[in-house]
Specification:
- With 306 residues, the chain is mainly alpha-helical.
- It is built from 15 helices and no strands.
- Helix 13 packs antiparallel against helix 14.
């Protein structure tokens, strides 16, 4: 039985769940109650269909995207079951992201920097999922050099820096990513304990889905995670003040989504305070922003001033 499992896992790692299933089926006849074998069989059944769908797509980028999206569906599929076997998961993850990586590597180099950056991001993501953290970091650093205003690229780069034990750079980039556009960050693909611990703590506060994404940078500041900061450029200061003005006006609308706007505005206020402090602006400006935070959320205000 052990030999069949190892053979099946080798096939799964090489992206052949159909052949792996053929190896596992005879073994199940003798061990119907073997949880790991049953789990591996269920994984094979899922990926046989998923890989077939992907292979029907001629465009390599779209095929790679299909593997990535199927992985997200697979994680949802797993939540229906009870026990997950990590040895099986390692084999499946290796197989899926090796197939995806092959697709992205076969794409002709794009002249458009934004498109090239996206391909590099996905290559970096695949390397990260395969445990090649330094290779992933290098790919994502290149993607960041091509497009430095993409929240997904910044977040993935931050994740890789954290996985490479470069925590200071990771904190700078995570803070940046959630400031640029929290809603575009996919938490499913962030693996470092630095961000996962923060996400768990914010979820314990009762937040989920889109609201969770907006509250992460707020609590990231309060919990001492998003505390490594950089100086803003003049044009960024102007944009920050414009974003604050726009968010404050949006809050006045009767139909506004306060569950999203409140944390978003608080985070903007945090950035504005940091700017006032670094620029040695009049303390009255900082106190005015603190008052606005207190009006929005007294608990957050108390945690911040302490």
């Amino acid at each position: 039985m052990a030999d069949e499992i190892l053979q099946a896992y080798n096939l799964i790692r090489s992206g052949n769940p159909s052949e792996a299933k053929s190896v596992l089926e005879p073994a199940l006849v003798y061990e119907l109650d073997n949880g790991e074998t049953l789990f591996a069989m269920n994984c094979c059944n899922f990926w046989i269909d998923a890989i077939k769908r992907a292979e029907e797509i001629d465009d390599f980028f779209e095929r790679g995207e299909t593997y990535i999206n199927e992985w997200k569906s697979f994680l949802v599929f797993l939540k229906r079951g009870k026990k997950i076997f990590e040895r099986t998961m390692f084999a499946v993850r290796t197989g899926v992201f090796t197939l995806a990586l092959d697709c992205y590597n076969r794409i002709a180099i794009e002249k458009n920097s934004a498109q090239k950056a996206e391909v590099q991001r996905k290559i970096g993501l695949c390397y990260k999922k395969l445990g090649e953290f330094e290779m992933a970091r290098n790919c994502l650093a290149e993607a960041l050099s091509l497009k430095n205003d993409s929240a997904p690229i910044i977040a993935e780069a931050a994740d890789c820096y954290a996985l490479c034990s470069e925590e200071r750079q990771a904190k700078v980039l995570f803070r940046e990513a959630f400031f640029v556009d929290a809603q575009k960050i996919d938490l499913e693909f962030l693996d470092s304990e630095l961000i996962k611990c923060l996400v768990r703590n914010v979820m314990e506060k009762g937040f989920s889905d889109t609201a969770l994404l907006e509250w992460i940078p707020v609590y990231g500041q309060l919990f001492g995670i998003f505390t490594v900061k950089r100086r803003l450029k003049p044009q960024e200061i102007a944009r920050l003040k414009g974003d604050v003005y726009a968010a404050e006006n949006a809050m006045k609308a009767p139909s506004c989504q306060t569950e999203l706007l409140t944390p978003r505005l608080i985070n903007l206020y945090f950035w504005l305070i940091d700017y006032y402090v670094s620029a040695k602006e009049d303390i009255k400006k900082t106190n005015e922003i603190l008052t606005r935070i207190k009006i929005l959320d007294t608990e957050i205000y108390e945690m911040y001033v302490k």
